[in-house]
Design a protein that fits this description.
Nucleoprotein/polynucleotide-associated enzyme, DUF2058, 5 helices, 4 strands, two-stranded antiparallel ribbon, 181 residues
Length: 181
């Protein structure tokens, strides 16, 4: 009994040549699959799905990055347009101006030295104050709409109308015109 198990089964009559050949072919295919490193059909399918999912995720990430880049570019372009509008339409501040005009920016009170004519125009809404590079500039009201269409927080809001309401109990007490705060 020195032969292989397959030979012994054939000699004993427990198996025929056809069964032996099928077993040999099956064994050869399994060993070839292991040597070649081929994965089974399920593993191959799972790997393909993982690759496809990673590809779709990368496409979505790229779209999001492109959208963010486009937003940044649009914001930079709007800032450049606002800068150009303010620089071309700003009114020069007179170095001889002696009247101090106080206004609120955020939570702090700031001031500019202006002439009386400019203060009156600010009160009527003909001029507005714009913020550019931590500096304050007077700009005409016609330009404000174009600036606010591009960026909102560049132009300071108009001063609040302080005319007394008809039912105000202090309406009879007027604030003097020469009072400066």
């Amino acid at each position: 009994m020195a032969g292989s198990l397959q030979d012994q089964l054939l000699n004993a009559g427990l198996a025929n040549k056809k069964q032996a050949k099928q077993a040999k072919d099956l064994k050869r295919k399994q060993s070839k699959q292991k040597r070649g490193g081929q994965a089974s059909v399920d593993e191959e399918h799972q790997r393909r799905e993982a690759v496809e999912a990673a590809r779709l995720e990368k496409i979505e990430r790229d779209r999001e990055l492109n959208r963010q880049r486009q937003q940044e570019q649009a914001h930079k372009a709007a800032q450049a347009e606002v800068r150009q509008l303010i620089e071309t339409h700003r009114l020069p501040l007179s170095p001889k101006a002696e009247l101090r005009y106080n206004f609120v920016h955020g939570t702090t009170i700031r001031h500019l030295y202006l002439e009386q004519k400019q203060i009156d125009q600010l009160a009527r809404g003909q001029l507005r104050i714009a913020v550019l590079d931590n500096g304050y500039h007077l700009i005409p009201a016609e330009v404000v709409e174009r600036i606010e269409a591009r960026l909102q927080d560049v132009v300071l809001p108009r001063p609040v109308d302080d005319t007394p309401k008809p039912d105000d109990p202090y309406a009879d007490y007027q604030i003097p015109d020469d009072l400066m705060w």
